[in-house]
Recover the amino acids of this structure.
């Protein structure tokens, strides 16, 4: 394949993806032993002009941007947050309300182990609205949670204090007016030199269909 010498993959101020390849040895581009480089090209929408490989001002090859992207993106670059293995922590009908919440909180204590965003992936596994076409109020406002990446951004924005905390405690289990089981917790942590203590209520409902039938799922999390 093409050399993996991709120096940066970035997004410019016009929200257009740009690739910038510094000079590399490119025998496949027709310059054995010589220096080759790719001219920076912006992608607008789903179409883009071809990328032109050049050497000393002379055109050597014409390469489509999508083909170049597939071959030159480094292995560590996450093309799609949904292309990851399943969560290692999943709901079970045998789990009590406190166990359901504890499983989620423990995953958020170290949210990037064993891989990036695994803790949030566990939260998605326990989310009642995950994979549904119906709008969810998990974050306190109406949002589509059909895809994991929709959930990922919302969770990172709304519940930063639930991630990488120091400790938590249970404050009580009950039921609200909507018939949901509730588990209130207090989370303690720090951001730099600033310590915090925040309370949250997990509202749980029983899944009535599918592979998670009978499991307690989180319908929403309320911040106090």
């Amino acid at each position: 394949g093409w050399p993996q010498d991709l120096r940066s993959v970035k997004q410019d101020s016009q929200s257009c993806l740009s690739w910038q390849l510094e000079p590399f040895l490119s025998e496949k581009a027709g310059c054995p032993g010589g220096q080759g480089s790719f001219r920076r090209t912006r992608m607008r929408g789903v179409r883009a002009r071809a990328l032109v490989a050049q050497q000393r001002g002379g055109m050597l090859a014409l390469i489509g941007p999508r083909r170049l992207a597939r071959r030159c993106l480094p292995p560590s670059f996450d093309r799609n947050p949904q292309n990851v293995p399943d969560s290692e922590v999943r709901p079970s009908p045998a789990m009590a309300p406190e166990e359901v919440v504890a499983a989620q909180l423990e995953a958020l204590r170290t949210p990037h182990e064993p891989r990036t965003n695994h803790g949030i992936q566990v939260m998605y596994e326990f989310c009642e609205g995950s994979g549904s076409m119906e709008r969810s109020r998990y974050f306190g406002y109406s949002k589509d949670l059909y895809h994991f990446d929709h959930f990922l951004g919302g969770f990172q924005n709304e519940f930063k204090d639930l991630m990488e905390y120091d400790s938590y405690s249970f404050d009580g289990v009950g039921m609200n007016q909507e018939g949901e089981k509730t588990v209130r917790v207090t989370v303690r942590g720090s951001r730099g030199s600033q310590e915090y203590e925040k309370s949250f209520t997990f509202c749980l409902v029983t899944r009535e269909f599918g592979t998670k039938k009978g499991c307690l799922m989180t319908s929403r999390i309320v911040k106090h």
